[in-house]
Amino acid sequence: MGTIKKRVKRRLPLVFIFLFLLVGIAIFMYPKVSNWLSVYTSRVEIGSYNNAVKEMDNSQIEALEKKANDYNEALAKKDTQSLSVINYEALLTVTDAIGYVDIPKINIYLPIFHDMSDEVLQKGVGHMEGTSLPVGGKSTHAVLPAHTGLPSAELFTDLDKMELGDVFYIHILGKVLAYKVDQIKVVLPEDDSDIQIVEGEDYVTLLTCTPYGINDHRLLVRGTRIPYEEEVKEISTTPPTQDDGEEQLSVEVIVTIAVIVIAIIIIAIILLILFLPVGKERKNKKRASKEKQKS
User: Where residue 216 sits, what CATH number does that domain have?
Assistant: First the structure.
């Protein structure tokens, strides 16, 4: 027993080196694996949404559009009486998502959900209740918030790379709405002057916290509606499908398994270092065994 304790004590520095290596691998891989899982979840959500829309007939789509337009019109007119009888959560409901945003400049597709709850903002883009629904139309201004800097998902982390003139797209009920960035501002959280409805305009504002790691201001990237022309889309951004999600998951599974195998190997090495006799210890053990047999 005493020999084992001495062995462990003598080899502790080497053990700590391997432990630090194990922790380093875990810290390095966590954001990557988590973001891969987030991308997978988004792709499956968007694929499910697209499939559900394809299965709807025109009358169902038109009914959803009408209710959304009625809501937007009531907002623009500040018709509180009409708004009070509208069930916000039921508007544009196809799946959990109400649509998705496509931003070629920063290479993301993200599902859009009702409200701004923490649960929503952990997995995609929210919709700020009290602003227009993102179905387009004159005198509308939809505000779509998402997190920046989450260790588990990138989301709007790269939104600060957007520039005036960049184009992003909103996919709603099988239609694609194009918006060209015409204003980028950083404001205080309580300043809502730049997210108001402007008569006759069709705006969508992408919102996230800034600066990275401090998050005491809000970055507003506003787009104004332009005609959608698929042939001039900035990057090939074919809408994700559930198959894309499964393909993405297969990559994640391979990487995750590789990381787990590396971790197991490191743990095995640590155990061998601690408990496997080497060098003089092994020779002494053999010598003692031979002497015991002779006696």
Answer: 2.40.260.10
